[in-house]
Each structure stands twice: as structure tokens, then as C-alpha cells.
Amino acid sequence: MKLIKKDEFLNFVDSLIKIDPRRVxxxxxxxxKFIFDTLNSANExxxxxxxxxxxxxxxxxxxxxxxxxxxxxxKFSVEAVNEVTPLIIIGVHPYDxxxxxxxxxxxxxxxxxxxxxxxxxxxxxxxxNIQNVSPYSFAGSMGTATTEEGFDLMLTDLGDEYAIEIGxxxxxxILNKYAKIADADGDTINKVHxxxxxxxxxxxxxxxxxxxxxxxxxxxxxxxxxxxxNAQKCLSCGSCNLVCPTCYCFDVQDIxxxxxxxxxxxxxxxxxxxxxxxxxxTGENFREDRxxxxxxxxxxxxxxxxxxxxxxxxxxxxxxxxxxxxxxADPCKVFNALKEG
Amino acid sequence: MSNESIYLPRPATIxxxxxxxxxxxxxxxxxxxxxxxxxxxxxxxEVSIMGIGEAPISVSSSPTKKKSFEICVRAxxxxxxxxxxxxxxxxxxxxxxxxxxFDTEFLKGKDILFIAGGLGIAPLRSLINYVLDHRADxxxxxxxxxxxxxHELLFREEVISWRKRKxxxxxxxxxxxxxxxxxxxxxxxxxxxxxxIDFNPSTTYAVVCGPPIMYRFVIRTLKExxxxxxxxxxxxxxxxxxxxxxxxxxxxxxxYVCQDGPVFNYSEIKDLPExx
Lengths: 341, 276
Ligand SMILES: Cc1cc2nc3c(=O)[nH]c(=O)nc-3n(C[C@H](O)[C@H](O)[C@H](O)COP(=O)(O)OP(=O)(O)OC[C@H]3O[C@@H](n4cnc5c(N)ncnc54)[C@H](O)[C@@H]3O)c2cc1C
Ligand code: SF4
Ligand code: SF4
Ligand code: FES
Known about the structure:
The structure holds two protein chains of two kinds.
Chain A: E1 2-5, H1 6-18, E2 23-30, E3 33-38, E4 64-71, E5 78-80, E6 87-92, H2 94-108, H3 114-121, E7 124-128, H4 139-142, E8 153-157, E9 161-166, H5 169-178, E10 182-183, H6 186-199, H7 214-220, H8 225-231, H9 239-242, E11 250-256, E12 262-269, H10 290-309, H11 319-323, H12 331-340
Parallel strand pairs in A: 2-6, 6-7, 7-8
Antiparallel strand pairs in A: 1-9, 1-10, 2-3, 4-5, 4-12, 8-9, 11-12
Chain B: E1 10-19, E2 24-31, E3 44-49, E4 53-58, E5 69-74, H1 78-84, E6 91-98, E7 111-117, H2 121-133, E8 141-147, H3 156-164, E9 169-174, E10 186-187, E11 204-209, H4 212-224, E12 232-235, E13 251-252, E14 255-256, H5 257-260, E15 263-265, H6 266-269
Parallel strand pairs in B: 7-8, 7-11, 8-9, 9-10, 11-12
Antiparallel strand pairs in B: 1-2, 1-6, 2-5, 3-4, 3-6, 12-15, 13-14
Bound molecules: flavin-adenine dinucleotide, iron/sulfur cluster (SF4) (2 copies) and FE2/S2 (inorganic) cluster.
């Protein structure tokens, strides 16, 4: 573990911005909310944030991404596109780091999706331990309030300085190159350990049972009337999908230039709550019913992806809860209600 | 190869087009790199028409036919209609083959009852022709094929040749015979053929492909005839946007049709509420 004085940390970030060839992204404030955005100066960083509007997945699975481009004047002239901008992202909370690790598994499974993987491999993630808790978040009870992996560097605020855990050689390299650091002594290591140990208990909102029980609970409650009852208020707007760090479904479309000579194939974020998500060409819609779509998202988070990959695909960030106008998207409320029966 | 985009189609050239009906044609394709497709019967490819999009289409020919492969396309939307505007010599993009096809090893020595409704004959034909090319390896081959009306029969000449062969039993039906059309065979939905044939439930496997509504009725009738649930094999269709287990569109509850299917044993999926 290393130590860096706060003013030195700002110098470090400014050096990254000015000297390092990678683009530097960080958490900034926007109105009374927070976002991940390009940093122009270290002073813009807000490492005391509670949660950002969108998770950092937007850098690895962009809302719109070109997969292919082609020339229509030729009989068949197509090439793969992979627009990779190497990034350094500063201020990622543990639940978002864990969500990215889950996405890594999905995009590497069986067929390697290099459009995602290359962007991940070319980037550096600098995490920060949570200082302020979002009232919507329940990460403390999901086991995602802290993490020992998934970062290149991890910061913990110690008042006048940050403790830095090193998670990778890439992380260590930028520290050595751009930062004035000292080694942390045993006391500091204990202090960081202590701080991390207390983060989970700062969350007022809690899942009332261990998340490992979710797959079975959801299986038993597939026909629970709660789905129908809540879904009556659902606007099928898909916001709960779009803001979620573990939602990755996409649509694919061809877009042709006005001159009809060139075109590209793009993928865009899609959401299973949207009405046409499972509609096929014969007109059959395999999830026509709003309640079925509403249920699908929770089943996917707590059971389907668990069965497939072995993780609970909700990291408790609470973004969906705050994005849902009729206030029915909150997994914590829904899961607790199912548990109470 | 390992860094190649999983979304990049490879070019294939249309060698032949056989028009079956107003909206259905068979396209014979050759990969431009001359590599055989190496598919299993029942697998599908993603067919691209650049500038329009991509659609999952079953390979309709048997892998025993090596130099080219065939797909039977019904014009229903953007890609499939554009496909019908193409001519011999034009090119399409191909990704795949994808998914899990029919287990031709497992079926060896078994009697096979093929049941096709409408366009369901397209994926089924890859298995039928595979079995016919390895006839001695398989038991009885019984084909039940139903369409809405006589003029909608696909693979007409091939079906006639099946009916002439002594080593296959092929029964045809149409839902109804419109005025002015001629029909010598059964009239009624495809389920009405099932009681008319004799088969041994312990040695027979039914392989069923057709529109979503067909499955429920066919499965019920097969069960009434004593066929066990794990003796029923079917191929399912869902919306697909990637074919490689990423986009999430093809999910039936927790399973991905593009990866775990499209061919399933009925016993694997019967308890999935979203399956049938
Ligand atoms: C495993 C598998 C095998 C198949 N095998 C065959 C085969 O052998 N032969 C064959 O002809 N077909 C086959 N199909 C069906 C075929 O894939 C569809 O007919 C095809 O995808 C339609 O694409 P399209 O571009 O022509 O239609 P589209 O233009 O995409 O759409 C037609 C209809 O699809 C729905 N739709 C599509 N995109 C959207 C959207 N963005 N928003 C809302 N609705 C939308 C709508 O209902 C629309 O009316 C198969 C499908 C699967 C999954
Ligand atoms: S955000 Fe709320 S209203 Fe919108 S689709 Fe999700 S559950 Fe429905
Ligand atoms: S489901 Fe909601 S709380 Fe869970 S990870 Fe997604 S946005 Fe966060
Ligand atoms: S088609 Fe995309 S996940 Fe199956």
C-alpha cells in the first residue's frame, strides 16, 4: 500500500491529464448530481460523490457503437470497426468495479467480444472507497460496498492524504511515472482496513437476507402477484435498464449515408422492459405482457445470470430505483417484499 | 483469428435461386473463401445484407453437401424482403453457423418421426437429408409435413421424390384446399396425421419444427400416442440480434436460444414458462 498527500494527488491527476496519452475521465458534479466525464483539471474531481447518474459501462459498451462499416458501391466490402480510446477513469466505486467484472465475464464467454474487451484492456480504473452513501443504494447488503479486486489502483480518503492499494502493474506504472508517493506503514494499513470494514454498515437501505438466497427466492416467486401489481404502473420506459451497470442488452441496426454509398452497422443500448424487445417478424411477441417484462429484469438480476455465470447481477447501486418515475424498479424493495411473502 | 470481430460477416455468393411461392425461395450459397460451412443440421447462420441488416436463418441443406449450402427464406421484413430482390451472382454476408443443432449421433439407430409445419420444413430438411445420406445408420424415417394450402408447399419436387422412395414414409396435409386448387392428400392440421401412422414409442424420436402455435398441439397429440417427453425434439424461434449470446434478445427465461438452442429436447424446456 502507498500513501499520497492530497495536493500531490491533484498534481498526479493533472500530470495524467497533461502528459499521459490516455484520456482522463473522472467523477464531476452536474447540478446536484454526479457524472463520469472527461476531466480538464484535477480540481473538477469529486471523489466524495454518492453515485453517478450513469455507470462507467458507457465507456466500454457505448450507448451507440459502430461494429462494421461498408462500401455499398462494391459487391461486398465490409470491415470490422473497433474504436478504442484508451482511458484512465478516476473515482469508480466498488459496486461499479464489480459490475464491470461481471460484464467482462459475459463478453468473454464463448464468443469473445473484442469491441468490449479491447476497450477494457486499454483502460485503467482508479477506484475510490465510498465516502458518502446514496439514499437509494443498498450495496452494503449485497457484498459490493468494498472490493479487493477489479481495480488498477484503489484510493481511500484518510483526511490529508489518500491510501493507494495497487491492483495491477499498469496501475503501479502510472504511479511510479507521475506521482510522488510514500510507502504506507502498518498503522495506515490497519486504518484503511478499519475504514473499509465500516463502509457496509453506513447503508441505511438493506436487503433483509443474504443475497445468496435470491436465486431460490425468485424461482419460488415466479408466479407471485407482485409482478402484475407493480407492473400496472410500469411505463415501459426502459430507464431501469439504461442506468444499470449490469444491463448490457443491445440492438443492432444498419445506418446508410444519405448518398447511399457507405454505411455502418451500429449497436445501441436496448432494454428488456421496452415493448418490442422480444417481438419477432411473424408478429409474435414472446414477452408481450408488461408484467412478464417487468419480472424478467428481476429474474435476470437474481436468478438467470446467476444460473449461467455464478454471480448475482445486481450490485445494489440504486440507480434504477432513483430513475423510475412510478417507483417500482427498486430491487431492494421488490426482493424484500418477496421475502416477506 | 482470435482478435477477429465476432460481428464481421464473411462474403458468400448466390449460386442458385429456386422460387417456391410468392414469398419463399431457396438460395444456394457458396462461401467466397470456399471453406465448407461445417454446420450441424439444425444450426443457423446470420445472413447480412449490408445497408439493410442481419437475420438468423436456418441452414436448410445437409452438411453432407459440402461445396455449397442452402437457406430457405420467407419474405416478412427488411432483410428477408431484400434477400428476395437479389439475383444469382450477388453477395450476402454470413456469420456462423451458430447454436446447437440436432444430435445426429444420438439419433443413430432410432426411428425418426419428422413433423414440419410450414417453413419448419426448412431446418428439418437439413436433418432429413442428412439421415437420407446415411440411411443405413438410422431406423424408420417418417415425415409428416403440413402447410396452409397446396400452393404453399415448399420443396415440392423434393417432397415428391421422398414420397417415391421405399425407405421413407412421407405424409402430406394442408389446412384447407382453396377453390381451384388440386390436392390428393390429407386435409387438416398436421396433428391430424399423427393418429394415422403407426410407430413404436420406445424406439421413436419425434423431431418437430413449425410455427409457435403448432408445438402445443403436436406435443399433446404425441404424448397421447405414448411418446415420452424426452423423445420429443424441437427447434424454437426467438428474436435475435447477435447470435453469439450477448444481446439478450433471444432469452427464454434463463436460457439463450442462440447458444443453448435453437434445438432443444422437450424435457429440457417444458418447465420454462416462456418456452411454448
Ligand atoms: C433460429 C432461427 C432460425 C430461423 N430460420 C429461418 C428460416 O430458415 N427461414 C426464414 O425465412 N426465417 C427464419 N427465421 C426467422 C427470421 O429470422 C425472421 O423472419 C427475420 O429475422 C426477419 O428479419 P427481417 O429483417 O426480414 O424483418 P424485420 O424488418 O426485422 O422485422 C419484421 C418484423 O419483426 C419485428 N421487428 C424487427 N425489428 C424490430 C424492431 N427494431 N422493433 C420492433 N419490431 C421489430 C416486427 O414485428 C417487424 O414487423 C429464423 C429465426 C430464428 C431465430
Ligand atoms: S424505469 Fe420503472 S417505469 Fe420505466 S420501465 Fe423500468 S420499471 Fe417500468
Ligand atoms: S438493478 Fe438497479 S440497483 Fe441493481 S445494479 Fe442495476 S441499477 Fe443498480
Ligand atoms: S441472439 Fe443475441 S443473445 Fe441470443
